[in-house]
Amino acid sequence: MGAAVAAVGLVTSITGTFLPWLKSGSTTRDSYEVLSLRDLAGLDGVAGGVVTSIWVGLTPLAMAAVALHVVRFPRIAACVGLLFGTISGTVALLATVQGDSKGALVGISIAGPVTTLAGAVLTIVGAITVLTSTRRSAVRTPGGNP
Asked: Which UniProt keywords are listed (predicted)?
């Protein structure tokens, strides 16, 4: 059950990164388009490259978590899911806290960050469920030790 919740969370988070994160007049931009504006924000050096690499790397990280679960490494997949949820959830939480800037010419659009945050929470909850669940591979024999 935890793996299914984590999978839904991964898909929801990745979907949220493609929803609007920034609005400028009547134009909205998703999180990847916002990253392309980093040169204007003065993040064109090493810091900007690191931020971009980490954010763009979220989708392959989510795919790795799913692939690890498919090949029967659920606990490693859960750890990857925790990493994914922590990164995406932190960024989405920061953007969500800034809130919707109603009436402002440039502001944060709430749809993308909230969706990404909800997915990150589901991912973390599912991953913790997988990590704390008991293994059922031990066989008990009557009157003996497992």
From this structure: Membrane, Transmembrane, Transmembrane helix
